[in-house]
Design a protein that fits this description.
The protein has 510 residues and is α/β, with parallel strands linked by helices. It is built from 19 helices and 16 strands. Strands 1, 2, 3, 4, 5, 6, 7 and 8 form an eight-stranded mixed beta sheet that branches. The chain binds hexanoyl-coenzyme A (HXC). It holds the Pfam family Carboxyl_trans.
């Protein structure tokens, strides 16, 4: 018996060594943790249950028969994060560069199937050279099996991808179909084809970092939602994100104990909006003033900064926030900000996360670049996402809500439940100056007359009361009581239920 137990221990030890000490040292030398060390940081201590530790590939060509490593380059199983169940896979770069073989894919598919059956999220730690070249089409088939599952479970369980090394080819498409992508700065890359292929095909000379590093994907492409300095920090932030999310689409997000008074008054908000409409202010101040303990997890912070998206808690309950940011491009809607916010709204709606929308928007950004880029279609994504959302929705207009952007930003008309405005709100088809110049074009030569017309327009329209008179705004509230009013609104909406018409699926303007 003892011999059998010892044999098990030695098989386990062999599997835990992955591609060998030399490659582990190389991984550490790059500032990266190993696949198992990463799981130790991500999961609660001692909670990891590993599956398929002894699985090996079945390939024989290209000398593969002699290159079998137990586990086949991916560590899979389940564990807990702050006591809540999560299924995980962690690719082991020390084994054939974490490349995906047929059996490697089967291991990932197994835990994805278990996750969806048991209603728990999947977190994938990606560190892979892509399809295992020696296995050819068997490896491509393995990828496709993973892709299909990513699509099938989308909206059923949250899926989070962490990019922790080079991810090329097929290794980027599975993350792209998940809900959130976090990257590690300076050690992770995502590209469909690497710099060498780019040079051959397009003659462009580009480094891996420029082509697919964390900066590129968080600031330019918006493929990734956040980036952090090292493995440990990134995994800690994944834990933080996980805590905001429900385990699946039939459960509510977790409720955390809170020590922040929901009735907290913030007098400084009464002077947040400057006297001049042309002056910006930082909408983040309002977001933090509303949040329990001022805690806000921003998603896609570095991209389309004219809109902010992220999670906070009110009375311990998760709320998704979409907020125009007047500090950047005056908070206008454009292609990038519409796409960013639409994606966020869809996620929140799929997972029963109530939505808070903070509005200060001068309209859609004009110009040929926007029109040629399809701002109509992209703006429609946000309009569509809000119009379809059935989660509790509370909207607060702080200042401008002009034109189509007023409609889009969770107006009453497209489905928001409670719409508040500060007394400083200006709800109109457009700003006073633009409106007067169109309405009184024949008087443009007479400056005094135009100034008087502008003042008249301002008096009539640049306030929240025209909308409030029609019931489009439920109440004009004092800025200092925003947290209290919003907390009460969400509390009253906790039982919201909406019947939707049967359909196979919508045809969202993708
Ligand atoms: C098999 C691979 C591999 C792969 C890396 N290795 N990628 N083995 N298949 N795809 C092995 C290497 O041979 C090496 O083995 C070890 O992993 C480490 O690789 P290095 O090149 O030494 O590491 P590094 O210099 O850090 O470079 C990492 C890398 C590079 C950037 C990922 O290895 C690379 O470019 N790999 C190929 C990427 C690629 O083109 N993949 C196929 C994409 S096509 P030893 O034994 O020396 O340790 C694809 C199609 C799917 O994925 C499409 C679906 C839509």
């Amino acid at each position: 018996m003892r011999a059998v137990l010892e044999q098990l221990e030695s098989r386990r030890a062999e599997a835990r060594l992955g591609g060998g000490q030399k490659r582990i040292d190389a991984q550490h030398a790059k500032g990266k943790l190993t696949a198992r060390e990463r799981l130790d940081v991500l999961l609660d201590e001692g909670s990891f249950e590993e599956y398929d530790m002894y699985v090996t590939h079945r390939a024989t060509e290209f000398g593969m028969a002699g290159q079998k490593v137990p586990g086949d380059g991916v560590v899979t199983g389940w564990g807990t994060i702050n006591g809540r169940l999560v299924y995980v896979f962690s690719q082991d770069f020390t084994v054939l560069g974490g490349s995906l073989s047929e059996t490697h894919a089967q291991k990932i598919c197994k835990i994805m199937d278990m996750a969806v059956r048991n209603g728990a999220p999947v977190i994938g730690l990606n560190d892979s050279g892509g399809a295992r070249i020696q296995e050819g089409v068997a490896s491509l088939a393995g990828y496709a099996e993973v892709f299909r599952r990513n699509a099938e479970v989308s909206g059923v369980i949250p899926q989070i991808s962490v990019i922790m090394g080079p991810c090329a080819g097929g290794a980027v498409y599975s993350p792209a179909m998940t809900d959130f992508i976090f990257m590690v700065r300076d050690s992770s890359y995502m590209f469909v084809t690497g710099p060498d292929v780019v040079k051959t095909v397009t003659n462009e000379i580009v480094t891996a970092e420029e082509l697919g590093g964390a900066r590129t994907h968080t600031q330019k492409s918006s493929v990734a939602d956040a980036a952090f300095d090292n493995d440990v920090e990134t995994l800690e932030e994944v834990r933080r994100l996980f805590d905001f999310l429900p385990l699946n689409n039939r459960e509510k997000p977790p409720v955390r104990p809170f020590h922040d008074d929901p009735n907290r008054i913030e007098m400084r908000l009464d002077t947040l909006v400057p006297d001049s409409a042309a002056k910006p202010y930082d909408m983040m101040e309002l977001v933090r003033a509303i949040a329990d303990e001022g805690d806000f997890l921003e998603i896609a912070q570095a991209f389309a900064q004219n809109i902010m998206t992220g999670f906070l808690r009110i009375e311990g309950q998760t709320v998704g926030v979409v907020a125009n940011q007047p500090m950047v491009l005056a908070g206008c809607l454009d292609i990038d900000s519409s796409r960013k916010a639409a994606r966020f709204v869809r996620f929140c709606d799929a997972f029963s996360i109530p939505l808070l929308t903070l509005v200060d928007v001068p309209g859609f950004l004009p110009g040929t670049a926007q029109e040629y880029g399809g701002v109509i279609k992209h703006g429609a994504k946000l309009l569509f996402a809000y119009s379809q959302a059935t989660v509790p929705m509370v909207t607060l207009i702080t200042r401008k809500a002009y034109g189509g952007a007023y409609d889009v930003m969770a107006s009453k008309h497209i489905g928001a439940d409670v719409n508040y405005a500060w007394p400083t709100a200006e709800i109109a088809v457009m700003g006073a100056k633009g409106a007067t110049e169109i309405l009184y074009r024949s008087e443009l030569g007479d400056k005094d007359r135009i100034a008087e017309r502008t003042r008249d327009y301002e008096a009539r329209f640049t306030n929240p009361f025209v909308a409030a008179e029609r019931g489009f705004i439920d109440e004009v509230i004092m800025p200092h009581s925003s947290r209290k009013r919003i907390a009460r609104a969400f509390a009253a909406l906790r039982g919201k239920s909406v019947e939707t018409r049967w359909k196979k699926h919508d045809t969202i303007p993708l």
